[in-house]
TrEMBL record:
InterPro entries: HTH_17, SinI_DNA-bd. It comes from the Bacteria. Residues 7-56 form the Helix-turn-helix domain. This is Helix-turn-helix domain-containing protein. It comes from Streptomyces albiaxialis.
């Protein structure tokens, strides 16, 4: 987290992720994402959201070459 981080509320995080607000609330409850409590309000730093997305991004695999069933033709 940097000093210039923007702090997002649960609804803003849900909108960025394309989910309902229930999902970020569950991430907070399960302590799966960094958050800040400001009084009774919960805020998630943009950098923490970016880290979460980066950590859960699945890269595509390269397809394997098709195996020849009978070997090469003469």
């Amino acid at each position: 987290m940097t000093g210039r981080d923007r702090y997002l509320n649960v609804d803003q995080v849900a909108e960025l992720l394309g989910t309902t607000s229930r999902f970020p609330r569950r991430l907070i409850a399960e302590r799966r994402i960094t958050f800040v409590k400001v009084g009774r309000h919960v805020r998630i730093p943009e950098s923490a959201l970016a880290e979460y997305i980066e950590a859960h991004t699945v890269q595509p695999v390269r397809p394997r070459r098709a195996r020849m069933r009978y070997g090469r033709a003469a």
